[in-house]
Design a protein that fits this description.
By secondary structure, the protein is an alpha/beta fold. It has one domain: Metallo-dependent phosphatases (Purple Acid Phosphatase, chain A, domain 2). The protein has six helices and 16 strands. It has helices spanning about 25-35, 60-70, 85-95, 130-145, 165, 175-180; strands spanning about 5-10, 20, 25, 45-50, 75-80, 100, 105-110, 115, 150-155, 185-190, 200-205, 205-210, 215-220, 225-230, 235-240, 245-250. The strands form four sheets. Strands 6-7-8-9-10-12-11 form a seven-stranded mixed beta sheet, covered by helices on one side. It has a five-stranded mixed beta sheet with strand order 5-4-1-15-16, with no helix packed on it. A two-stranded antiparallel sheet has the order 2-3. Strand 11 and strand 12 form a beta hairpin. Helix 2 (about 60-70) packs across helix 3 (about 85-95) and helix 4 (about 130-145) packs parallel to helix 6 (about 175-180). The termini are far apart. The relative contact order is 0.17. The mean pLDDT is about 95.
Length: about 260
């Protein structure tokens, strides 16, 4: 059985539906993305949101998140990003996640694959950190499923992203993360957000992906922060029983 997963990321919603980030209405952009998804509905096993669901640090904004994803909700899984608030996320979305080592994560075996979501939120920081306790938990999960192809999802990518300014606000314990991953060859793909653009690379034979935001886009490989004019998007992942991964990014036209 092929698992089909949609990854959305960096929605940056406000409780005010008309609020803007960098002169872009993030609610409107997300609604445009979601409006393109119905043809995919019956073929998708999971819709995974990799952080920065909100931007205004208001717990009630997660009520809007839940409402916008209502038709998808049984298939939604999510993890926090640097702009999220754990208590608000858990209050409104606690049935889609679990708490482990004071973090918000998810884990499940679906078909022939194991899916694990990690929490890289570091309160008060734009940078991310997984922390020793969560990495120990991850090592245990991977050790318990050594023969099962595994996909990991988190907000901060565990690699350098090609932009000097973005690397300064990346995952601070990425080397500790890779020391956990390296002994577990069943990890086939890692999907992240945070950088607001598409990136594909490999490390230690693992496919590492980042995905465009549903809202504001950043210019890739830039020395300083710049907004890109690229369209919002999302990622489709097709995970085969033999551990093969097929993936592509879909951009959503703002002028259709």
């Amino acid at each position: 059985m092929t698992l089909r997963i949609l990854q959305l990321t960096d929605c940056h919603l406000f409780v005010d539906p008309k609020a803007e980030l960098k002169q872009i209405c993030t609610r409107d952009r997300l609604e445009r993305v979601l409006a393109t998804l119905p043809p995919e509905f019956d073929r998708v096993d999971r819709l995974i949101i990799t952080g920065d669901l909100t931007h205004d640090d208001l717990p009630e904004t997660y009520g809007a998140v839940r409402s916008l994803f209502d038709s998808w909700w049984p298939r939604v899984r999510l993890v926090p990003g640097n702009h999220d608030v754990r208590d608000g996320l858990y209050l409104h979305c606690g049935d889609r996640v679990e708490r482990v080592a004071e973090r918000i994560v998810f884990r499940e075996t679906l078909g022939n694959w194991k899916l694990i979501g990690l929490d890289s939120h570091w309160p008060g920081e734009v940078r991310g950190e997984l922390g020793t306790a969560q990495l120990e938990w991850l090592d245990g999960e991977l050790s318990a499923g050594a023969s099962t192809p595994t996909a990991l999802f988190l907000h901060h990518p565990p690699i350098l992203a090609g932009s000097a300014w973005m690397n300064e606000v990346g995952l601070v314990d990425r080397e500790a993360f890779w020391s956990v991953i390296e002994p577990h060859p069943q990890v086939r793909v890692i999907c992240a957000g945070h950088v607001h653009h598409e990136l594909t690379t490999y490390r230690h034979g693992v496919l590492v992906l980042t995905t465009p935001s549903t809202g504001v886009q950043f210019v890739p490989e830039s020395e300083q922060f710049q907004i890109d004019v690229a369209e919002p998007g999302y990622r489709i992942l097709e995970l085969e029983e033999d551990g093969t991964v097929r993936t592509r990014v879909v951009r959503v036209s703002l002028y259709a």
